[in-house]
User: Which sequence fits this backbone?
């Protein structure tokens, strides 16, 4: 039996009321709110958040492949799945792949992973999606899209939902697209976009699947299928294919927005959170063709570990108080640069040497005195930043010690108005990790007024800065209040 | 290990005008400080046998030999964060103490105001990723947060306590002709000033300043050939920590071990048992008001956790029991990094000679002066004690 063995989800903390777009631009304000990635989040960080959620309690060494699905990769030439594999402490002899270029990147990755497992090339493959699509300011799309991520672990042991069959179509019509260099979604006249695209091709794939496996609309306990930017088209598919509207999984337009390549995976996670053994689930996504699957929930779902998933992340939110902040966070307006010294160009060599420390938040624990310690700032050029114990001065007697999954407590803090920040003030905190170890980190997703000595925090993988001089996205760990 | 006490004397000092010297380059202020020192010592540049220059932005010894046209004598640039000025003097001191040279010069200089940005022009810090957002105020704010928390001060009480330090230093600096800032401030202005890095506001931060200061040193036995009132080195302590105490488990953030260690070394060499009683005046590293507060405790002027009582009592004002920052300190005189240790020494030197610029600034009954710098993120401290008589 091959299928889903674990799941995880992520929705950024901040939500922007669609009324804010109306306030800014006039015209037509849509109902509800959309999720907005913080300024330090992108498709990679949100996919990692989802992957961490999915992998909680699971040994990363067991994973044989990691596929990253997105249409908003921060890089054109540079594998992001490998960034994620380092951050997640996966083995070196694994398959890594970024699936991009289509809104069904997530299901394409899943279909490929299933075939690899079926062929015996891998036992467990993690598929993680993250998306931060942009609509141009003033248009409908910026209101409609949302940011988020989801992850599914696929394997052949401990399957909570087996994947019983699939059906795919390739279709070259593309009514919406982004070309190389495009920041925003482009669109053809929308009647054709949906009539010839989503509304024709997705039902064709779903019908094809049902015909192939001799399924009827009433067989499914949950129907999880993609939603396009015109979300009304989503409801019409149910009518077209005679699905009971009550069984159709909500595409979260009112709460999150349409999250592109991550959407159907997020919806599937939400469906699995409510699923019961024996449920049949239809799962389909669209993007220059369509992929459709049918899943069978197993009794193993009762053993599924507690996840933040979609439900808890949906409840945990902070209303972003203005649209201007959104523009700033997405770098859609030119903001006067902080009058601070220019940053020195990032050293690829230093990032390479310290990749475990930076991306994996690895420190060490002294075998002589037992003190866990994170690097003391690390002189640039040191390949093993800690060789002498900060506590007992024992030399080279360390074992690796990972801090990323440790909770911590604020020991001291500041809100720095002088430091350059996209979301000033820059909150920097000194923390004591549970189990020992001291560190200094930026704090994100915080309300400055809530920050206190003694406050519990957790680690979150974020983009520390983008170095425009060398085109490098610098990822690192920050702290945040315990999310949920 | 021998003590440096009474082995070396300062026979000439100079200090440039401190400030935002838009119309002066670093060469101009080097010359201003050095020629005042030459004149004070009664010698010419040709008599200098070796020199040390302290600056964080220089380029080798030529930083000094070029403007002063020091004729092919050995010149060494030293750097040790904010203790850089003290380091120039410390190394010069050893140069004469060991007998290799008879007359040496130590000069500290910094031209900070060419950066085009406010605050100290520090960039990314010490790690390509991890320290991308560090600033001076942000780093020292951790101390204030933790100190307030540890001793149960509300943010308001804490801000008023450290605010009084800034009020005092602005008052002292206002009296000092060469100081950068000439402005009295009230406690209300200090506590209500714009926040730079919570809880530190604008007036909790020292001046960012251009300036230079210079000393000429000889062996103690030769000192009276140069002048009637040489000032003797009584003790020099220097202590460095790991690059960042930030990551050191159990570091309490309410004081610095290297402060205490540098003071211990200096007091031991100078034979000081009770610094509060024996030191006549002190210039301590007040990059931020909270730094001055913890220095009171680290250097043994106030018991640990009780600096507030001394601040409230006015113990460290010009009229107090132990005047601290009589020239306004980094806060008001300014903080050109490489110059600061020497500028502090200049104030001690002049006060101990009874020659404070403007007679109304002159302190009474002064015997020993202490200067102290604390540098890095922070990780290095230097304490220098000088006196006006042997023994």
Assistant:
């Amino acid at each position: 039996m091959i299928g889903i063995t674990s799941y995880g989800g992520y929705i950024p903390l901040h939500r922007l009321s669609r009324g804010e777009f109306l306030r800014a631009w006039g015209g037509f304000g849509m109902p509800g709110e959309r999720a907005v990635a913080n300024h330090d989040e992108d498709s990679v960080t949100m996919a990692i958040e989802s992957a961490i959620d999915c992998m909680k309690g699971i040994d990363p060494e067991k994973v044989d492949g990691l596929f990253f699905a997105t249409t908003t990769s921060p890089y054109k030439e540079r594998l992001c799945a490998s960034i994620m594999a380092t951050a997640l402490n996966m083995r070196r002899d694994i398959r890594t792949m970024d699936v991009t270029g289509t809104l069904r990147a997530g299901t394409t990755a899943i279909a490929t992973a299933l075939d690899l497992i079926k062929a015996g090339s891998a036992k467990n493959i993690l598929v993680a999606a993250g998306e931060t699509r942009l609509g141009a300011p003033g248009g409908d799309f910026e209101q409609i899209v949302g940011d988020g991520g989801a992850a599914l672990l696929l394997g052949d042991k401990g399957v909570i939902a087996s994947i019983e069959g699939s059906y795919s179509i390739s279709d070259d019509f593309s009514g919406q697209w982004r070309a190389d260099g495009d920041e925003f979604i482009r669109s053809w006249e929308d009647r054709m976009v949906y009539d010839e695209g989503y509304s024709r091709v997705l039902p064709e794939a779903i019908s094809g699947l049902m015909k192939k496996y001799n399924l009827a609309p009433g067989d499914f306990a949950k129907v999880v299928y993609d939603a396009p930017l015109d979300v009304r088209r989503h409801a019409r598919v149910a009518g077209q294919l005679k699905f009971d509207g009550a069984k159709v999984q909500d595409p979260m337009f009112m709460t999150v927005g349409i999250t592109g390549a991550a959407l159907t995976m997020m919806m599937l996670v939400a469906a699995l959170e409510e699923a019961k053994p024996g449920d049949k689930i239809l799962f389909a996504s669209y993007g220059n063709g369509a992929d459709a699957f049918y899943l069978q929930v197993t009794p193993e779902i009762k053993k599924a570990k507690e996840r933040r998933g979609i439900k808890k992340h949906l409840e945990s939110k902070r209303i972003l108080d203005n649209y201007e902040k959104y523009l700033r966070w997405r770098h859609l307006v030119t903001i006067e640069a902080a009058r601070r010294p220019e940053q020195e160009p990032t050293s690829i060599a230093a990032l390479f040497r310290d990749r475990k420390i930076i991306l994996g938040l690895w420190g060490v624990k002294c075998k002589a005195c037992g003190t866990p310690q994170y690097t003391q700032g690390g002189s640039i050029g040191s390949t093993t930043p800690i060789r002498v114990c900060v506590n007992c001065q024992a030399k080279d007697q360390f074992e690796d010690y990972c801090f990323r999954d440790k909770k911590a407590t604020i020991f001291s803090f500041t809100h720095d108005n002088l430091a350059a920040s996209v979301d000033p003030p820059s909150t920097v905190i000194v923390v004591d990790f549970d189990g020992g170890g001291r560190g200094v980190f930026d704090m994100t997703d915080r309300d400055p007024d809530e920050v206190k000595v003694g406050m519990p925090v957790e680690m979150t993988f974020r983009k520390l800065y983008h170095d425009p001089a060398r085109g490098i996205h610098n990822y690192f760990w920050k702290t945040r209040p315990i999310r949920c | 290990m021998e003590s440096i006490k009474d082995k070396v004397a300062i026979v000439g000092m100079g200090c440039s005008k401190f400030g935002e010297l838009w119309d002066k380059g670093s060469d101009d202020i080097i010359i201003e400080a050095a020629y005042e020192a030459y004149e004070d010592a009664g010698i010419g540049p040709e008599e200098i046998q070796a020199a040390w220059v302290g600056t964080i932005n220089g380029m080798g010894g030529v930083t000094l030999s070029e403007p002063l046209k020091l004729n092919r004598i050995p010149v060494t640039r030293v750097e040790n964060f904010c203790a850089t000025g003290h380091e120039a003097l410390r190394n010069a001191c050893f140069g004469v103490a060991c007998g290799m040279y008879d007359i040496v010069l130590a000069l500290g200089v910094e031209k900070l105001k060419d950066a085009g940005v406010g605050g100290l022009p520090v960039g990314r810090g010490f790690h390509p990723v991890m320290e991308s957002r560090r600033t001076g105020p942000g780093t020292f704010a951790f101390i204030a947060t933790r100190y307030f928390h540890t001793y149960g001060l509300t943010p308001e009480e804490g801000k008023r306590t450290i605010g009084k330090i800034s009020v005092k230093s602005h008052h002292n600096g206002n009296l000092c002709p060469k100081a950068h800032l000439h402005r009295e401030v009230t406690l209300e202005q200090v506590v209500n000033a714009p926040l730079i890095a919570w809880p530190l506001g604008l007036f909790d931060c020292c001046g960012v300043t251009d300036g230079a200061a210079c000393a000429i040193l000889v062996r103690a036995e030769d000192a009276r050939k140069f002048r009637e009132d040489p000032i003797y080195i009584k003790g020099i302590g220097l202590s460095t920590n790991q690059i960042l105490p930030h990551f050191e488990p159990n570091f309490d953030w309410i004081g610095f071990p290297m402060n205490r260690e540098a003071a211990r070394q200096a007091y031991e060499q100078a034979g000081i048992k009770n610094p509060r009683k024996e030191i006549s005046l002190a210039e301590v590293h007040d990059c931020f008001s909270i730094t001055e507060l913890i220095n009171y405790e680290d250097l043994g002027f106030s018991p640990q956790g009780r600096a507030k009582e001394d601040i409230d009592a006015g113990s460290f004002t010009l009229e107090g029991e132990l005047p601290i920052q009589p020239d306004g300190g980094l806060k008001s005189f300014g903080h050109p990094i490489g110059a600061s240790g020497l500028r502090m020494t200049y104030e001690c030197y002049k006060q101990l000679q009874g020659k404070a610029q403007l007679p109304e600034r002159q302190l009474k009954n002064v015997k020993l002066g202490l200067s102290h710098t604390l540098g890095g993120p922070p990780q290095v401290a230097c304490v220098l004690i000088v006196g006006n008589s042997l023994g």
Observations:
- Chain A has two domains: 3-329, 348-481.
